[in-house]
Amino acid sequence: MPSTERYGMSTLVQANGLNLVFDAGRGATVRLTQAGVPVGQVDAVFLTHFHSDHINGLSDLWMSSYVPALGGREGAFQLYGPVGVRNIGDGMQSTYRNDIDVRVADKEVDPATTPIESHEFAEDGVVFDQDGVTVTMFTVEHDPVGAIQPAVGYRVDYAGKSVLISGDTVPTENVLKFGDGVDVLVHEVADFEDPTALPSVYAHHTNPQQAGDIFEQTQPKMAVYSHIVNGIPGRVPGISEETLVERTRENYDGPLTVGTDLMTFLITDDEVQVDN
User: Fold this and answer.
1) 189 CB contacts (<8 Å, ≥6 apart)?
2) What DSSP line would sit under the chain, residue for residue?
3) Pairing mode, if any, of strands 125-130 and 133-139?
4) CB atoms within 10 A of CB 3
5) For residues 114 and 81, is the Cβ–Cβ distance under 8 A?
6) Is the pTM of this model over 0.90?
């Protein structure tokens, strides 16, 4: 939902000097700036799927990063994901061609910084391998009949440390497979005050009891909730953070954090430190 407190879906993973962004929902550029990461220093963006709430901040991130005063990126914008990513990248370049042309004509930007290089993949596996950092893409299930395709999650590995981002999904075997023993497991969740409300929403997401079972099986050093679908203002009451945790605890008693914007996690050899 449009909110001044919780912006759209976007997760930054930093490893060995690289800034990797997973999804670029509403306000991603603002939050990156608040986090002290110049948008021109984003090394790659990875999309989990193409619902608008995961990509509606993408054009802002791309265009801001090639304007020297805002981002000053060197080279092309790197976009990764499943099949369909190239269509998005090409479409944005076509849609905003006038912005590029006038800025180049005005000698404001270097034309070499404006392209989008799209890297799309049809199968699960490693899609990024740079400076010892690997990103593995895996298929998830965002709906019960396979209508929402593609839909993927990602696992990032570096120097024995690991982060998994589930993407939007119902409970999926691949999350268990790729999430086994990760340091940080970032998982979506959806719940309402009345668990029988809006069964169509529950059919597209993971409820806290199901997520708790996933966390119990994978045993991350830190389980984290993001992309929290929690009620519909004025229509369907949501739940408190405490209730969300209580329902998760029915199946899981390990480390758990309910994510908020700009929250950070530092993976050390011994633990995962959380900074609000």
Assistant:
1) 205, 206, 207, 208, 211, 225, 227, 228, 229, 244
2) ---SSS-SS-EEEEETTEEEEE---TTHHHHHHHTT--GGG--EEE-S---HHHHTTHHHHHHHHHSTTTT---SPEEEEEETTHHHHHHHHHHHTHHHHHHHHHTT-S-GGGS-EEEEEESSSEEEEEETTEEEEEEE--SSTTS-S---EEEEEEETTEEEEE--S-SS-HHHHHHHTT-SEEEEEEEE-SSTTS-HHHHTTS--HHHHHHHHHHH--SEEEEEEEEE-BTTTB----HHHHHHHHTTT--S-EEE--TT-EEEE-SS-EEEE-
3) antiparallel
4) 11
5) no
6) yes
- Tell me the per-residue pLDDT of 124-164, one tens digit each, with 9 for 90 and over: 999 999 999 999 999 999 999 999 999 999 999 999 999 99
**Contact (CB, 8 A) for 271 and 221:** yes
Alpha carbons 105 and 87: distance in angstroms, whole number: 26
User: Phi-psi bin for 262: left (phi > 0), alpha (psi -120 to 50), beta?
Assistant: left
Among 62, 64, 45, 54, CA closest to 26: 54
What are the structure tokens assigned to 243, written together? 């209730």
